[in-house]
Write a structure and sequence with these properties.
Elements (H helix, E strand, L loop, with lengths): L2 E5 L3 H13 L3 E5 L5 H7 L4 E5 L7 H10 L7 E6 L3 H11 L3 E4 L3 H20 L21
Parallel strand pairs: 1-2, 1-3, 3-4, 4-5
Helix pairs in contact: 1-5, 3-4
Length: 147
């Protein structure tokens, strides 16, 4: 089962992302701030993150870069989400090593497939299974379970 951490400081956008991902059948976790993201990722066996770019504490692109540089999180799929210009978002995603990008205007049709592609790409690079990157990860401690 793919486990996705959604990080967005905007409650409405975060709820929309969570709803799309739950509907797609993923286990979904959420944070309103990037603070503590690495702990949640490790503790709950997160497979992929969907990161908003513009947040007050640390921008999503900076967090993506930090996550990508963490060797323990090499199998983590990273998808950047923003309402900014798609060319700008694409360049930013490439710069920080994100596995995908999604415009907020296309969340309902593009987010779940982008997460699936990110997880598959990371699994292909490592040869690991695409569902749970951490062998000791049990059931989610808290999440929005699929309906």
């Amino acid at each position: 089962m793919i486990r996705v951490l959604v990080i967005d400081d905007d409650d409405i956008a975060r709820e929309a992302m969570c709803a799309v991902l739950v509907k797609a059948g993923f286990y979904v976790f959420e944070l309103a701030t990037p603070i503590g993201a690495t702990s949640v990722i490790k503790r709950d066996g997160i497979t992929a993150v969907a990161l908003d770019i513009n947040m007050p504490t640390i921008n999503g692109d900076k967090l993506a870069k930090l996550l990508r540089e963490n060797a323990q999180l090499a199998n983590l799929g990273i998808v950047l989400v923003s309402g900014c210009d798609i060319e700008q978002l694409s360049a930013l995603g490439e710069k920080v090593g994100a596995d995908g990008i999604v415009s907020k205007s296309k969340l309902h049709v593009a987010l779940a497939p982008a997460i699936e592609r990110a997880v598959a790409a990371r699994a292909a690079k490592s040869g690991a299974p695409a569902s749970v990157p951490y062998p000791n990860a049990g059931p989610p401690s808290s999440s929005r379970r699929p309906r």
